[in-house]
Amino acid sequence: FGMPLRESLRGYAYANTMLARVKNSPLAETNILNADKVERLFTEHIRGKDNTFKLWNLVSLSLWANRWMK
Asked: Among 7, 2, 1, which Cα is nearest to 55's?
């Protein structure tokens, strides 16, 4: 059984929650991530382009950073 990540990340509320997590992570604070590019990936995904792999990796990395870089 696989998680419906593609669909979940297309849900506006969930996507905005995950975008906020990524943009407010230590990765963004230290400029490791380009916030504009991350936002563009989420926007493209909501509009139909499949960025699931990239987005889920960014979310996972951001959660890791919140745990280990703060």
From this structure: 7
